[in-house]
Known about the structure:
2 domains, 5-stranded mixed sheet
Amino acid sequence: MKWIPVLCLAVLLALCVQQEVQKQSVEYTVKGCSQAKFLSDSYEYTDGNLTVYIMRNCCSDEILVEKVGNTYKVIEKDNDGKICKCNCMSAVEIKNAEKDARVVFVDFTGEEKELKNLAGAFCGWSTFASCKSDADCVVGGCSGQVCMGKGEDVVTTCEWRECYDAKKYGMRCACVDGVCQWAQS
């Protein structure tokens, strides 16, 4: 009977060690922190690489990527306790990724969210600027991928992706619920 607590502790320790062993090394880079918002956190797989788009706190200290089994975890870290009242969009590029992997974002509070794959989906993003009518909203960005408020200054990279084609996906930039955002036509 006195060996039961020791045995339980040994099993727990073995499980912890096994989980650490399953973590695999991941090569990745984090790009940008622009003050715009995606329709939702998401990812896409292209030529063996994953690009993960996350909305994070402007003042988070670092973004880490871990791979455990078939899951990539993109983890936002706040080490100094200084969190701002702003969010920004970042792209995390994961090299030599598995095509059918699961992708999860863990924000600085520890909340986990499974991300959606953009394959076959519209991938434009919105600034969610305040508006009163559709006339207050305009399409912007180098490739027409941003739905933003009139007069906003949004800077984007100038690459074209098929998923930016609003007409193809039946999307329009409109004032919905008092904010500028992409909506079904």
